[in-house]
Each structure stands twice: as structure tokens, then as C-alpha cells.
Amino acid sequence: IFFVSVGALMDITQLESYIFIAIALIAVTVAMKFGANLLGNMSFRQEKAKSLRSAFALSAPRGEFSIVIVKVGVDMGVVSAFLFPLIGLITIITAFISPFLIRVGDKIIPKLAKS
């Protein structure tokens, strides 16, 4: 019910103008989460394969909590209404790419862990 009600509040007619911004933000945030996760794991001396697996698994998902925070900010007038559909789009896209990143990671990790 939550996603239906939040989705009904979004102006999807403007999504095509946000797609390039969303893709750029997704690329930057996924790369930053991947790097931070990998660095954190390696600083605690985790095995390389385990560090890489964690980084691949946790780098994409953006939480539904982001949608809630932006919605509250828009309602209070402290966040631009432009961000609401943008954050919604980012959340949806990252939810769908997460399994693909894990699958790619499963193929790449054995090669990277050996080096």
C-alpha cells in the first residue's frame, strides 16, 4: 500500500526529463558505495573475496526510506518538489539493478580475488 500511495503522488509525466540526472546520480552513488564498502571491509582485514562480495551486494540498493524523507521534506517546503520523482526513479532503478550487480560480482570476484 505504501508504494502505491507514494507512486500516486509522483508526477510521472516529468520522468523523462529526470532520466539522465538519475542515471548520473546512480552511477556516482553506486561507485561511492562500492568503494566505501570495499575500503571499510579491507581496513578491517577481511578476505579480498569477502570484501568484494560485500561491495557488490551492497553497492546498488537505495532504500525506501529515501522516498519517505524526500516526501516529508517536500511537504514541509524545505526540499524542492523536483527531487520527489527523481528519488523515486533512483530507488526503483537501483532496486532492479541490484540482482544484476550481484550476478556480475559472482563472475568477477574469483578473478579479482586471485590478483
Brief summary:
The chain is mainly alpha-helical and 115 residues long. It has helices at 2-9, 15-43, 48-58, 64-76, 83-114.
**Low-confidence parts:** none
Shape: elongated
Largest sheet: none
Task: Please count the helical segments.
Answer: 5
Helix/strand class? mainly alpha
Amino- and carboxy-terminal Cα gap: 47 Å
Q: On the 0-100 scale, what is the average pLDDT?
A: 87
Helix-strand string: HHHHH
State the total count of DSSP E strands: 0
Write down the Rg: 17 Å
Fraction of residues in helix: over 70%
Give the domain tally.
Answer: 1
Q: Beta fraction of the residues? A: under 5%
Keywords: Membrane, Transmembrane, Transmembrane helix, Transport
Organism: marine metagenome
GO molecular function: antiporter activity
Transmembrane segments: 18-40, 82-102
Can you tag this structure with a few keywords?
115 residues
Explain how this protein is built.
The chain is 81% helix and 0% strand. α2 runs parallel beside α5, α3 (48-58) packs antiparallel against α5 (83-114) and α4 (64-76) packs antiparallel against α5 (83-114). The protein has one domain. The protein is mainly alpha-helical. It contains 5 helices and no strands. It is a multi-pass membrane protein. Its main location: membrane. GO terms for molecular function: antiporter activity. InterPro entries: Cation/H_exchanger_TM, Na+/solute_symporter_sf.
